[in-house]
Amino acid sequence: MKPLIAIHSCLNDIRNGRNQAIRETWLQGVEKYADYRFFIGGHPASAQDDEVWFPGVDDTGNNLMEKDAAILEWALSWGYEHILKTETDVYLDLPIIFNMDYKSDDVIGALVGWQWGAKYPRTNVKCFIQGHAIWYSKKAAEYIANGLLDTYKRLSPTAETEPGQADLGPRSSDLWSGQLIEGLWRQGKLTVRTDGNFGRGPYSYHLQGNYDVKSRAPEWLHKMHNATNRAEVPWDSI
Fold this sequence. Notes:
Strand order of the largest sheet: 3-2-1-4-9-6-10
Strand content: 15-25%
Shape: globular
Structural class: alpha/beta
Radius of gyration: 17 Å
Order of helices and strands: EHHEEHEEHEEEEHHEEHH
Distance between the termini: 38 Å
């Protein structure tokens, strides 16, 4: 069975053209490598064939954990054994990312923080794997789908951080999944590989910047797609 590219999306991404820009850029030729779906919360007036909607799931961005858990539950229900979760402000280089050995570990992605298993700078949360593009095995997906919300409820009341270091609320799905994964890794239940090729290339490129910059993601996605050397596309070029 092919892997799944799970694109964490929302209604606003449809309205501002992000989803369509992804279809027109890095998803070209995706059928050679993987299945894919856009995942959105709420009830659609209409839905495209590549969209999955979750009635009753928060679509505002205030509780990203709820949608991430629903995405993984859906993927598992369809029998996927390898899931690449990404966002709508990310460019994936499919020929490169699917040439990597993504089946050898349960979790593969870029590390936020200086050392896996250590404390994130000036906080009492652990360094974590970010969600700009991250591989999950079936086993990892099962743990996260079943334990993500409980991990937040268990740890967030005691979590502390300095301003500007980390958002410790329910929108920080990657942080809380990182805390869950870190614990399972210490128990020997999951294998984790940190890889700096996610986020700033060449596997995936994440659009850095504030909300105003990210609102222009469709233009950036097209620039990345047309660039001979994507690493040279300046982040402020949009």
